């Protein structure tokens, strides 16, 4: 790809994760579907937090995790997303900047508080999420500074953010600036519930505006409303430049025209918490891809980054990923 | 011991830990002594946080960790300490209450913000701490409700809090209420720098007002200004009812008159972060002691609780300690 000051700019929800252990019975009592993401309002966020066990606070947000992963791999990443200037917002900005990610969106001085994602981890290491979006929904096209997009080889968009009208406008603005500058765009479908809600819009985005698509098995099946992974693959092939499809322990597939790679999952010890696996796979792939690696090698870097993140709580790397790639690639 | 609604009430600093990895060079640049605790003011707290890497926020505070440990063992614990009604204060109160600890000290509505302990963990799992005490220093005798002391078999005091004049008054009030009600008092020396600063006062407390003393090797040597552990032991013996002296990987010693027990350290996997080892040893010992166990068995419960806490980041148990004791005692 063409030289650029930034490898990747990611755009998404700016969230602090509140992580706790939970029993399956707790999820049922709270009316939450295991292993899914539910959006909740401010009032429900308070009552859920009161009912949850002792927790740990750690910065998260899907696209922000991806940016932190790219920086940990030695890449140059920026993030666009909205927090308020409250304690959680300051934690979020601190953790991202000190991870080496460029983050210069101004913190909101009024309006809803910084977003929180309540993550309940059950004994099988599955996570169930209830997200209060707070300040995130106030992201506007004005927060997308053109140079943060034109300076990046790839602008990566988080499907979770495809909901408030102004955020959609911000997405469209970023896509236009990126393509006008001869850059590439990437999208993650984020969640099969997101896909369900905006299937038509996501298909249109994917088929016309996006160069690189990230999706897991459930998401790509939901996008084409088919039962099997292979059926989804046949539908999706040929639509965008690169398809990167993740399948948990079955590994991933990368498709570009006739070039097809099957990448094995990597295991680095017991799985503790699967939060962020997809975010870090995208980080690894995009780091490789924007740094001159082939598709297969980029996919393997994605698998290594995902393996690190699921070996501990939280969705930001604990071990420098550049060192890990040196050892495991 | 006599029946009581509570096993232990602990009194100490109410702190949220901000935990990060750090290089030894970072500690030198920040003028911090490795493996020690330094008190810092609000201004330095801001500049240190800006310089630190990405962090995780988790409730801490030595005596609060002990209370959470007792609850996790199945015991009945209360905590007395001061936070402000800001985001960190609400996190602190949430984490303690949902751990099963009684905490009903009103949150401050003005004055300094909730205390933060910046913990930098180096690769050898040693932790270096810089603490901004904030709201903690506003703990007053009024915050010590008599029934929270009279209801507890043991009132446990954290040496760290022995600094602001009002907190000392709160300590003295708690000791008097406890003894007037025929209950017991316990003290942890907390840190050899604390001992250095208040050696005379600590000796007097220990020799006249305290029934159970917790100290590690450095602290007890500092209390009597001697070079060897054995010398310190000879000085300390006979002063209070029970001495519990911890020696990291060398295990611990429990002394009551002529009864002397040597307790081995317990190992549960690799050591990740030694934060809270002493707090959880005290939790285990006090849980056992207030629930009819002998000194040796109480010490072994302390070793198991300490082993759990050093196997992960943070000083609050991740695995229910009652289950762990069932398996490992």
Summed up:
2 copies of one chain form a homodimer. Chain A is of the alpha/beta class and 329 residues long.
Walk me through this protein's architecture:
2 copies of one chain form a homodimer. Chain A is α/β, with parallel strands linked by helices. Chain A has one domain: UDP-N-acetylmuramoyl-L-alanine:D-glutamate ligase. In chain A, 39% of the residues lie in helices and 21% in strands. Chain A contains 13 helices and 13 strands. Chain A has helices at residues 24-29, 42-51, 62-72, 87-98, 146-150, 165-180, 192-197, 199-209, 217-223, 229-236, 277-290, 295-309, 321-328; strands spanning 6-11, 15-21, 37-39, 56-59, 77-80, 115-121, 127-132, 152-158, 184-188, 212-216, 242-246, 252-256, 259-263. In chain A, the strands form 2 sheets. Chain A has an 8-stranded mixed sheet. A 5-stranded mixed sheet of chain A has the order 3-7-6-2-4, sandwiched between helices. In chain A, helix 3 packs across helix 11 and helix 12 packs across helix 13. The radius of gyration of chain A is 18 Å and the shape is globular. The relative contact order of chain A is 0.15. The model of chain A has no long low-confidence stretch (mean pLDDT 94). The A-B interface holds A 21, 49-50, 52-59, 68, 86-88, 91, 94-96, 98-99, 314, 316, 318 and B 21, 49-50, 52-59, 68, 86-88, 91, 94-96, 98-99, 314, 316, 318. Strand 4 of chain A pairs antiparallel with strand 4 (56-59) of chain B.
